[in-house]
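Lab meeting, item 3. Inverse folding demo.
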């Protein structure tokens, strides 16, 4: 009986420990974007992404390297999501200066193992106008609601929450997009960069949730 109680107790402890499992946590400290964590998967009409090495726990992206004039230049980095199943929350902390010059778009997508986008979120800037955030339709998701949000302050927390087949996109805690889609394994998260508007990435995390 004591052995059985001990086994049950350990099972409860383990369940509580792994209820909110962190699949990956990228805080951009230490070395540069390491090939073990990130892969450059796309580079069209440019020489890649123009970024600085992490400084004080943040990654500064200036935009694209040598984009060709008149072309739809873009580049993408992809991060392994460890084939995550079930309910998850993906979160990203940014600093976006509303007064910064330049135009560009940063798009993050949750992707299945066959490369299909489940759902995404994009932040865009047009010259001297403020940053705008909106949801990005996925191949396997149907948008139920979506509205653009204009950012008035620098800190920006983006979240994509998936519970069963229901998805939400949150900006600083406010839901701006809902969708319904599949529950396929999340194999990777892709960041696509277009234009040359500066952004500061402070952290990114994917967690399994109850």
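The presenter then showed the designed sequence:
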């Amino acid at each position: 009986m004591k052995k059985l109680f001990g086994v049950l107790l350990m099972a409860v402890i383990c369940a509580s420990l792994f209820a909110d499992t962190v699949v990956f946590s990228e805080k951009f400290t230490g070395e540069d974007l390491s090939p073990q964590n990130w892969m450059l998967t796309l580079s069209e009409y440019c020489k890649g992404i123009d970024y600085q090495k992490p400084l004080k726990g943040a990654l500064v992206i200036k935009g694209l390297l040598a984009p060709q004039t008149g072309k739809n230049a873009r580049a993408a980095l992809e991060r392994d999501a460890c084939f995550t199943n079930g309910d998850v929350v993906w979160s990203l902390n940014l600093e976006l200066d509303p007064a910064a010059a330049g135009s560009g778009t940063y798009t993050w997508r949750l992707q299945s193992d066959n490369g299909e986008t489940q759902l995404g979120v994009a932040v865009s800037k047009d010259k001297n106008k403020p940053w705008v955030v909106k949801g990005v339709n996925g191949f396997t998701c149907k948008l139920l609601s979506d509205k653009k949000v204009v950012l008035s302050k620098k800190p920006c927390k983006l979240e994509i929450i998936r519970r069963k087949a229901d998805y939400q996109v949150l900006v600083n805690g406010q839901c701006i997009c809902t969708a319904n889609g599949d529950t396929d394994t999340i194999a990777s998260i892709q960041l696509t960069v277009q234009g040359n508007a500066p952004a500061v990435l402070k952290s990114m995390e994917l967690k399994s949730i109850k």
